[in-house]
Amino acid sequence: MAGDESFAVSLELLRRGHDIHAMVKAMADRLERALPDQVNFTASRLRRRTALEIQLVPEQFRIEVLGQRAGAQIDHIVRGICVRSEDVDIDTWLERLGTSLEREAAKSTTIRLALDEALS
């Protein structure tokens, strides 16, 4: 999967915590274009809350930002039921999300092309 330099820069800024709300939104916008039925993004300016869920069966990736604090979880889904949820750090979350996106891209040419277009 060919990602572009600006997406890599966004991920690096997310790792460092620079305007984490904007970085999560930018990632959500790109992933929603490629996987519209698998991405759910919500934001509340009043509460300074941003949340992103990405469903890549058998895992669901969640990140929630409240103020400047971020929490990341990876849920393990079996037959539509969450059997286990892991709290992970942002780096681990991003690495495992990347691995799952590569796996999705390998399953389908359509998904691979959509991801290539969305991330470039």
Task: Describe this structure as you would to a colleague.
There is one protein chain. This protein has 120 residues and is of the alpha+beta class. The chain has one domain. It has 4 helices and 5 strands, in the order ααβββββαα. A 5-stranded antiparallel β-sheet has the order 1-2-3-4-5, with helices on one face. A hairpin with a 2-residue loop joins β3 (59-66) and β4. α1 packs across α2, α2 packs antiparallel against α4 (109-118) and α3 (90-107) packs across α4 (109-118). The radius of gyration is 14 Å and the shape is globular.
Concise synopsis of the structure shown:
The protein is of the alpha+beta class and 120 residues long.
Q: Quick one: how many beta strands?
A: 5
Helix content: 40-55%
**How far do the termini sit from each other?**
10 Å
Structural class: alpha+beta
Order of helices and strands: HHEEEEEHH
- Tally of individual helices: 4
Search tags:
5-stranded antiparallel beta sheet; 120 residues; alpha+beta; globular
SSE arrangement:
Blueprint (H helix, E strand, L loop, with lengths): L4 H12 L3 H15 L4 E6 L4 E8 L2 E8 L2 E10 L2 E8 L1 H18 L1 H10 L2
